[in-house]
Write a structure and sequence with these properties.
Oligomer: single chain
Strand order of the largest sheet: 3-4-7-10-15-19-22-25-27-29
Strand content: 35-45%
Structural class: mainly beta
Number of helices: 3
Helix content: under 10%
Shape: elongated
Length: about 450
């Protein structure tokens, strides 16, 4: 056992010893600055690239102090991929809270050199780009792609090989906090593109083949193609309080997102789970056209605006156990109950239970206890959640099946008579306003 522990320690020490120090090189054939060896405690910045370029007399990079704006006419590659070590890159800081990067090139977070995992599960070598800081909301950086034509440049992670049957190499981590990612020219004709670009020179197809991503309070606008594609079950990701606007399709994968806004898009995704999100002025929110694989969509407390075109509502033509034949959109809502007794006084520790006899799964979170105010919890982890409406694609275009549900509500409390009520989800659905339901009041009578 001691020998085993000693071997692990020696391996870790060797890996640390082999790591190269901070390094920036310029690849002239690729017109790219390659950043490697920068630690998490002291990440690389655009300023480091600028100083390196001046020292090496490399043109194409400038800085405007008055607007805190960098202009870089080259790509930035984070990580070498062959030299042992990590590469951390930071945009936006306390000293430069409004830092802007206008880049006429790609940002590529490359796969790190192979390494063993640490005791906490993380890889020993990590390549990461961070924009903004989670603890400083006043830091609001911008990344603007200066494209001469639609889809010329973008941001991607890892790669999918073109020559080896789609072999995927994951490319590290991307953390964006309070950041704007957009096109430098926002006219719809100079949009950036992240995914599904074939770079034959490097034998790769771009994507978001990531180990970990965090997008918090970040805006993505003026993008073409699919913004994020390549997320799988092993990817650790968070998408919260983000805005996706004036672009094509944000998600090529089945993903989860919370408290986001999706507007002026071609479509949102092929499926996924969305909580507290707003959908407005999209060409389609979703379109099950049968040709492209459609997945189930679950909406909880969402505001679903009318799309400019109607959903085709056709079942998937291709069959596979990996996806549903008849995809559906399920609209859910959280329900808060207010239980009162005599003289409208609150009843605490009342048990509220909701059941749907014919479709038990329609009561997603089916029970809750009232607090001092006589109300059931509002927090999503504790609140009662019900399916109000379910629309499912069929084999007939434009003719989905629509299903509502009948719920039985049972309320019991010590010293009070048990109350049972039946309510239709169709009736509740009509009461939805801005994705939420009014509080449902239930009165209990005391035992005589």
């Amino acid at each position: 056992m001691k020998q085993f522990v000693l071997t692990i320690l020696l391996t870790a020490l060797l890996a640390t010893w082999l790591q190269a120090g901070p390094r920036i090189v310029y690849s002239k054939p690729d017109n790219a600055f390659v950043v490697s060896g920068f630690k998490e405690s002291c990440p690389a910045t655009v300023d480091d690239i600028y100083k390196f370029a001046r020292r090496m007399s490399i043109p194409g990079i400038s800085y405007d102090e008055s607007s805190r704006t960098w202009r870089v006419k080259a790509s930035i590659w984070i990580g070498d991929g062959t030299i042992p070590g990590s590469a951390f890159f930071q945009l936006g800081s306390v000293k430069r809270p409004k830092e802007t990067l206008i880049i006429a090139g790609d940002i590529w977070i490359r796969p790190a050199a192979k390494s063993i995992r640490r005791m906490d599960g993380r890889k020993a070598y990590i390549n990461r780009l961070t924009a903004g800081l989670p603890e400083h909301s006043e830091i609001r950086p911008k990344i603007l792609f200066d494209c001469k034509r639609n889809g010329q440049f973008g941001m991607f992670m890892g790669y999918r090989s073109l020559s080896t049957r789609g072999r995927i190499e994951k490319g590290g981590e991307l953390f964006l906090y309070n950041t704007l990612v957009s096109a430098a020219v926002s006219d719809g004709r100079h949009n950036y593109r992240n995914c599904w670009r074939s770079l034959k020179k490097h034998d790769l197809k771009t994507g978001f083949y990531a180990e970990k991503i965090k997008f918090v309070n970040t805006t993505f606008s003026y993008f073409t193609g699919i913004l994020i594609n390549g997320i799988d079950k092993e990817t650790d990701y968070q998408v919260d309080r983000c805005v996706f606007e004036n672009g094509h399709i944000p998600f090529g994968d089945v993903m989860k997102a919370g408290n986001c806004v999706f507007r002026n898009l071609k479509a949102v995704s092929s499926g996924g789970e969305f909580t507290g999100c707003v959908f407005e002025r999209n060409l389609w929110n979703w379109n099950f056209d049968g040709r492209k694989i459609g997945y189930d969509v679950i909406l909880t407390n969402c505001v679903l605006g009318h799309s400019r075109r109607k959903n085709s509502w056709i079942k998937n033509r291709k069959t596979s156990p990996k996806w549903p034949m008849y995809p559906f959109i399920e609209e859910r809502a959280s329900v808060v109950f207010h239980v009162t007794g005599k003289n409208d006084l609150p009843v605490k520790q009342a048990l509220v239970e909701v059941a749907c006899e014919k479709h038990p799964g329609a009561a997603v979170c089916s029970s809750a206890l009232t607090c001092e105010s006589g109300k059931t919890p509002e927090a999503l982890k504790e609140v009662v959640i019900l399916v109000l409406k379910k629309k499912t694609a069929t084999g007939i275009p434009g003719r989905p099946t629509i299903r509502f549900f009948n719920f039985t509500i049972t309320v019991s409390a010590s010293g009070y008579q048990t109350v049972k009520k039946t309510v239709s989800s169709e009736k509740l659905f009509r009461k939805l306003k801005n994705g939420s339901l009014p509080i449902l009041k239930i009165e209990l009578k005391e035992f005589k």
